[in-house]
Amino acid sequence: MHYIYEETQTLDERAYTTFGLNPEILMEHAGSALAKAVKKKLTCQQKALFVCGVGNNGADGMVAARLLHGANNVSLYLPFPPKSSLAKLQLKRAMQAGVPIVENLIDADVYVDALFGAGLNRPLDGFTCNLIDALNAKEGYKIACDMPSGIVNDLSLSSTIFNAHETITMGALKLCLFHDALKDSVGKIKVAPLGLSRNLYALPSPFYLLQKNELKLPLRTKKNCNKGTFGHVAIVQGNKEGAALLAGMGAFHFGAGLVTLLGERKRKTPPYLIQASTLPKKSSVIVAGMGLEMPFDTVWLRHLLLENTLPLVIDASLCHHELMLELLASKKPLVLTPHPKEFSSIWHFTCNEKVSVEQIQANRFFYAKTFSKRFPHITLLLKGANTIIAHQGELYINTYGTPALAKGGSGDVLAGMIGALIAQGYSLKEATIHASLAHALASKKLTCNTFAFTPIDICKGLKCL
Ligand SMILES: NC(=O)C1=CN([C@@H]2O[C@H](COP(=O)(O)OP(=O)(O)OC[C@H]3O[C@@H](n4cnc5c(N)ncnc54)[C@H](O)[C@@H]3O)[C@@H](O)[C@H]2O)[C@@H](O)CC1
Ligand SMILES: Nc1ncnc2c1ncn2[C@@H]1O[C@H](COP(=O)(O)OP(=O)(O)O)[C@@H](O)[C@H]1O
Ligand SMILES: [K+]
Fold first, then answer.
1. Each residue of 330-376: pLDDT tens digit?
2. Residues 105 and 132 sit within 8 Å (Cβ to Cβ)
3. Separation between Cα atoms, residue 70 and residue 77, nearest integer Å
4. 411 lines ligand 2 (CB under 6 A)
5. Binding site, residues?
6. Which of 126, 341, 350, 379 is deepest in the core (most CB within 10 A)?
7. Complex confidence, ipTM
8. CATH (residue range 2-204)
């Protein structure tokens, strides 16, 4: 698991004070990593253009151009004169080495965006927006230095953002790179070490990037077992019965020994799902909310969810229901799996403040972290292009989800999968993290194209993990 940071300037400063490095050493490493990435994409006939801004982001680009010049066809384009002392110094060095400087945005095979990085502190002006639009319109491979230009104060996004195939980010991962709205702009993210291994450069952080090799599958290692060994997931069935069916299939495919659908008996159910009108005695966890159309029998549901000590996974319509307040107040072990609209309802109930879906999406990390600190007994999974799992102020970010999952029913399967891991003895946080990872990775197993995938394919994909 890699740490992610809200800002990395503190880490740079620690590299100077604790390890005796200096800004030039860090920058030489930054430029070298950038040069390596560019070189990988260039054949001997091809040309790279470095578009460099006024500050140290531009300076990184100049270092990379100097390192490549002589052996590769590279040029610098400087739409503005350098301002920072390092940018001035690196330009002088690049010129001394004879790096060609061009006067406008020429055609190239690889484009490097070294316009703005962490120092962008106000919205881009019209000229720069047009320049980035022109860069985005060019064919060719695009690499962002540190971060795509257009992220203001490491946080908010300007209306125009450079669209990269690859981002070489300096020193450590930055939280802003995992903004949902940037998922089409960052490309593949690689970290450039800055004169120290990542372990030395890093300090502990409450934000983590989940890695696929960390996935803990509920593999059955003991041969002496029976269905009871793997727990019993009870799923509340609503009027839209398909939702609970999908959750049930997700739970069963992810290893639960028994899965019961609670509610009226329905005719078309997979034969391995049990149907019952009351909670089975040996249930391990209750999953509820999917397919519950309002109004529903609140008395029955309150009794079912609150008058026992079972952990709960709460999804979909229940997030919009005032029963949510009682669930939170009960201090029961709880996983909430809202999408942003459902989270906006939960926030309204719990924090007595109306926030729009747009506000949540623009500040996903803030809202998820704040909520998880306020309700430390809850594990929150905030769905999105990059899913966030928040617990006691820590955020775990899952970037593996694909557009194939953007279909009704994907979330139902996920809720069932979380229930399955809880039933098999995972803690609520671990169950949520590993179900989320498996859900996203399973969606990659069966995608021949991005549109024809169904929630049932997630279950099929689980068989191949
Ligand atoms: N030790 C260091 O300082 C290191 C710095 N690094 C690089 O340095 C970058 C940060 O450098 P800087 O802090 O110089 O920041 P930037 O190069 O991102 O830009 C800051 C400059 O842009 C100006 N500016 C801000 N918003 C603007 C706007 N909307 N329109 C026009 N001008 C605007 C600022 O006044 C300032 O002059 C990182 O992203 C990274 O690429 C790396 O070399 C690693 C080491
Ligand atoms: N563009 C996307 N990239 C990655 N994952 C996505 C994307 N769109 C949706 N998902 C995932 O698909 C699931 C959709 O869940 P949800 O909106 O609750 O659907 P439903 O309620 O219909 O089951 C979530 O896990 C979400 O993170
Ligand atoms: K940049």
1. 999 999 999 999 999 999 998 889 999 999 999 999 999 999 999 99
2. no
3. 17
4. yes
5. 56-60, 113, 117-123, 146, 149
6. 379
7. 0.94
8. 3.40.50.10260
